Amino acid sequence: MTLGRAVRLRRLFSHPSGRFCSVAVDHFVNYSEGLPPALRRMRETLAALMSGRPDAVTMMKGVAMSLWQPYAGEVPLIIQTIAARPDDKSREQMATVEEVVRLGADAVAAAAFIKGPTEASNLRPLADLVRAAEPYGLPVIAHIYPRRFDERAGASFSHGASISLDPEDIAWAVHCGLELGVDVVKTPYCGDVAAFADIIADCPLPVIVAGGPKTTDLAEALTTTGEAVRAGARGATIGRNIWGHARVTAALRAFQAVVHDGSSAAEALQLAGLCEEQPSGQARASSPMCIK
After folding, report:
1. Alpha-carbon distance 73 to 56, whole Å?
2. Which residue, of 14, 33, 129, 200, has the greatest Cβ tally within 10 A?
3. Which of 87, 145, 183, 189 is catalytic?
4. pLDDT category of residue 101 using cuts at 50, 70 and 90
5. How far is the first Cα of the chain from the last one, in angstroms, to the nearest whole number?
6. How are beta strands 107-114 and 161-163 bridged, if at all?
7. Is residue 150 among the annotated active site residues?
8. What per-residue confidence (pLDDT) applies to 34?
9. Closest CA to 31 of 233, 227, 210, 254
10. Catalytic-residue membership of 186
11. What pLDDT, in 10s, does the model give residues 137-179?
């Protein structure tokens, strides 16, 4: 490993816990779910996130060019380079390594969707990125998601793709990242502590988990993240369950408590002030896990 890559990876995992709790705001291009209010108001969202001091923020290059300068050097910056969707309707490179270096980023990220007949064509841009980043000592974070397909979609698999949480598929995703030479693998948590622990044990790279879809109850997302960390994950990168929350900074602090301090979901909600009492005596957070 080059000195530059070692320096940048140490910045990402600089918390005394040795783990990583970051936020991603690169969702619009990759999810085709419309433009959520928090991403529409990106200036305000970044301010709220930075108040909580995440370990890093992942974004597309244009957002960094327009809005990141006030925060330059405060926390690590990660640039997502790929616009891709599980159904393969889009898969294009949106930033080069040279652009990422000029932006001062600490790492470069790329999304890849595996399983199915387009697996190799999804992995090739990631392999190209590893090769391009090597001369610059720039760490590569692979966002690898295994897919499953609705049989009604037919042999082309052009529709009906969804993310698989099967442990064997998650293990395959992690192994793909390892074989391509990335530095960190981000993948979904399979939902089974023992199975995920086996996956982590077989991988010499840091594995972090994705924050997953927006949950109706923040405690649910905190609980699954805590399970992944107990299984050996080196942390998490969360999107919608932080910037999609009514209190962005508090939601980030709750996840930090789970990832860095090993807090339970109930403890994290309490520490983040998400169980404060309203004048009516009703808990601010609707979760039954709030400590009263």
Report:
1. 11
2. 129
3. 145
4. very high
5. 49
6. unpaired
7. no
8. 72
9. 210
10. yes
11. 999 999 999 999 875 544 344 457 889 999 999 999 999 999 9
CB 259 within 8 Å of CB 268:
no
Q: What is the pLDDT of residues 231-274, one digit of tens each?
A: 999 999 999 999 999 999 999 999 999 999 999 999 999 999 99
Catalytic residue among 55, 169, 186, 189: 186
Dihedral sign for Cα atoms in the order 246, 61, 121, 127: negative
Judge contact between 125 and 157, C-beta under 8 A.
Answer: no
d(CA 254, CA 265): 8
**pLDDT score for 281:** 38
**Is 230:194 a contact under the CB 8 Å cutoff?**
no
Q: Hunting for tokens 């974004």 — which residue is that?
A: 59
The residue annotated as part of the active site, out of 26, 88, 106, 183, is: 26
Annotated active-site residue 88? The verdict is no
The rounded distance, in Å, linking the Cα atoms of 27 and 24 is: 7
Tokens of 201: 């044990």
pLDDT band at 29 (very low <50, low <70, confident <90, very high): low
